[in-house]
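Let us work through a complete example step by step.
Step 1: write down the sequence.
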Amino acid sequence: MSTAPHHSKARTPSVAQLRAFVAVAEHRHFREAAAASGTSQPALSGAVAALEETLGAQLVERTTRRVIITPLGERVAEHARRVLGSLHSLTEAVEAARRPFTGPLHLGVIPTVAPYLLPAVLRLVRDSYPELELHVHEERTPLLLEGLAAGRLDVLLLALPAGGAAPTRDIPLFDEDFVLVTPPGHELAGRTGVPRDVLLDLDVLLLEEGHCLRDQALDICREVGADAAAGTTRIAGLSTLVQLVAGGLGTTLLPATALDVEAGRSDRLAAARFAAPAPGRRIGLATRPGSARSAEYDRFAAALKDVLRDLPVRIVDQ
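Step 2: predict the structure and record it as tokens.
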């Protein structure tokens, strides 16, 4: 007499468990993941432990200082991001069909854009979309792209092309030049028409790794064979970067939209402008391809272009 093999009933993870684990996988730190998720650290840790029990597998190695995601955990995180993205698309489609420009909208912004464009963005939302609940998340590009793919974020304001593993739909807004920022007594201070190859003779300070502006500045330096001071400092923000320039530690490349704000903090800074075509970057919106709110994002982009025309940028009209 033969006996049929016994199959245990598969258990399905909850959405809360998947969200908790994706947050930990993104931040590699329980406290930071809990803060980003708006929950307590014990609740987040409990949800991850419950997911491991549900799946019958270890997803996380917990140490005193950091979190290590196991190889299986990395694969689970990728699946979880796709599942959460699909769920978000479902609710997004329903909300978009009911009432456009209402309800929550999670906007991700890179740090080298946020302080200079957000005032215009917030005024636009306040004046034109009073029923839109805008939530702003300032993060570096890799985390923004992960959040977009997972459905944690709806639309990103960042340098294009967005890149990343998951495809995005990019909507260009404007192009802007980079300006060379120097101490006031520098030989290039206040000059215009400066050739790019002057970078060969300069110490160019950079932001720390993870900022797309760092990568853009490195590319500009490499084009002329120059070396940037990449290994001597770990600078998290543009405000600190320009203060180091003011202190005589070197020069740096600053986006035109940031110049007035950052240079206005000190009288020990000057700017030199490159000869045309000046190095620069393109800023725009990035969304998930096929989003149910695509029409809203297009209208939002068009409205943004109108309010940004007074900035030192070249609007990309399409």
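Step 3: interpret the result. Residues 200 and 225 are 7 Å apart (CA to CA).
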